[in-house]
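tmp note - Beta-ketoacyl-[acyl-carrier-protein] synthase III
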Amino acid sequence: MAQGVKIVASSHYVPKNIVTNDDLATIMDTNDEWIQGHTGIKTRHVSLQGENTSDLATKAAQQALAQTAIAPADIGLIIVTTFTPDGFAPSTAALVQRNLQAENAWAYDISTACAGFIFGLSTADKFLKAGTAKYALVISAEVNSKMMDFKDRASSVFFGDGAGAFILETSKQSLLMAEEMHTIGNEEVVHSGVIQPLHELSADNYPKTTAFHQEGRQVFNEVERLIPDHITNFLHQNGLEPADVDYFIPHQANLRIIEMIAKKLEQPMEKFVTNVTKYGNTSSAGIAMGLDELRQNTVLTGKKVLLTGFGAGFTYGSILCQF
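out:
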């Protein structure tokens, strides 16, 4: 039985179409000054070429695999975290497994919205430690744009599309030092794709669903109330202070939320990985993409990195990584 896991390779992928704040201003009553002032977001990548969530996930995974000598057939487990799946069945992970021709992998989705990468990484860690597989693919992928009501300017200006993929391998040393996760069931603050039940039997019945919607001020207040204390208490339980963490990678909800967390923790923004200004809120993919960018640009040997996700559900949690 393995003692831990390590990251073998990682990559991220975004659609080629870049949508600016000025572009959004042509289809809704908003402007660049308002969007940047309230969110810090300047641009986002949007899937306008017919790419669905499984396509983004597949391309990120292929790029990660290309960095290794690992064949798709060597992958034993594929987890895709998403709350914008291609559909309910087959799972997005199953489509990725097919696309990669990873015939020996069993695959499934995890839906914990913007905390997805935390839950996916934790889950893969357990399976690898149990000896279920030698290699696992954890992919966080979202095509948020397909779920947006672009008349709802308070929600739609935040979001972009993207994917991050990580190949994990069993190891003598463990990447994950500690973890903690929570769920508070609440569908009022954030909801998406709610399917309406039947009220009568009729030949006219057809499945109906809802677009994404969030109560932005309530989201900010909930994060402000919960997340800084969660991070501080989680670190204290592991004998650490926020100052002991080298890099923080929080959910890329918007820049103002990340700035608030940094201020509450009394840590400089230089320690916080951010990609929300260029990619927008990519839901579960934001942390995965941020960690990949950090790995590409920074020598992480000996560094402590805290991953913190929070989002619809209300679901939140952290993983402390020791590189």
